[in-house]
Structures are given as C-alpha cells and as structure tokens.
C-alpha cells in the first residue's frame, strides 16, 4: 500500500523524474535532521559539478542553497518527508501561493519538486530517499527541458548519490534522539 506523500500531493503527474535511496543505521529523526541540514560542501564532487553548471557555491548548507537558487520550501511532514519546489517560465520563481502551484494559476511552463523521504525500517535503521519530479506544462518546455535533462541527468544522479552519502555519514555519527 502506497503512503500519501507530499510529492504525490504537489506533483502526482510529471514528465521527468529521478529517484535514489539508501539505508542508514540510525533512527528516523536523526536521518531527517541530517538531511535537511546537509552541508553539500562536504563533497568536492558536488562543489565541482555546481561550479561547472554555474550554480552558487558560497553557501552550500542545504537551506541556504535552496534560498540562493530560488527554490521554495513547500511543506514538511516531520520526520517522514521534506519537500521543496519551484515553477518557471523564463526563469525560476519562488512559489508564493501553494494552491496556485497545484492549480497552474500562473501558467508556468515548468513545475518541479524535490523531496527527501524517510521510512523507519527497524529501530535504528532508516531508508532515506530523494526524488525529483519535473512537469513540463508548456509543449516548448518538454522539448527544451528534455534536451537539458538528457545532458544533466547523469550529473544530477551523481549529486544525489553524493548527497545521500553525506546524509548517511552525518546521521550515523549523531547521538540518537530518544
């Protein structure tokens, strides 16, 4: 049985997606805290890939990075899921009204969401996953983003896997929150 998730709530249909997961040896709360505070600068690979892609690299603690690139924290369901997103026409725009996002009220060309999801497997073991979904609302977006995605997806996968490794290291080194 599939659990109701925030990513399903905000973007149940999508044109492109990417999913990665791993198990960490810690309670779900530790994994959640490590993920939402992850410092991406701990990976030279992530920093390098961001630089060649032209993304900001001065503030790579996750919440600062989200702010710097124009994403919006959409919603969280502690300790099970945290969701960010954006919509775009010619550039990324902050989401000011979540109902507008769901209803396409601004006629975006593209909508995207990205989550961290957490599932307790046993007392001190948690599955951490991250998924990105992109919906191309306008036909031109499907063509242009499709070309972009075909090039960037392998590098995005490397970034996501590196990010999950950092979350694993950080969460497993925390003292349990009991």
Would you write up a description of this structure?
The chain is an alpha+beta fold. Helices cover 41% and strands 28% of the residues. The chain contains 6 helices and 6 strands. Strands 1, 2, 3, 4, 5 and 6 form a 6-stranded antiparallel sheet that branches. The longest helix is centred in the C-terminal third of the chain and has 35 residues, at 139-173. The radius of gyration is 16 Å and the shape is globular. The protein starts with 5 loop residues before the first helix and ends in a 5-residue tail after the last helix. The model has no long low-confidence stretch (mean pLDDT 92).
SSE topology sketch:
Elements: H1 6-10, E1 16-24, H2 28-36, H3 44-53, H4 62-69, E2 72-77, E3 81-88, E4 92-93, H5 98-103, E5 110-122, E6 125-136, H6 139-173
Antiparallel strand pairs: 1-6, 2-3, 3-4, 3-5, 5-6
Helix pairs in contact: 2-6
What is shown here, in short?
41% of the residues lie in helices and 28% in strands. It has 6 helices and 6 strands. The radius of gyration is 16 Å and the shape is globular.
Rounded Rg: 16 Å
Mean model confidence by pLDDT? 92
The string of secondary-structure elements, in order, is HEHHHEEEHEEH
Structural classification: alpha+beta
Low-confidence stretches: none
Oligomer: single chain
* Fraction in helix: 40-55%
Count of helical segments?
6
How much β-strand is present in the residues?
A: 25-35%
Number of strands: 6
Largest sheet: 6 strands, antiparallel
Q: State the end-to-end CA separation.
A: 28 Å
The shape, in one word, is globular
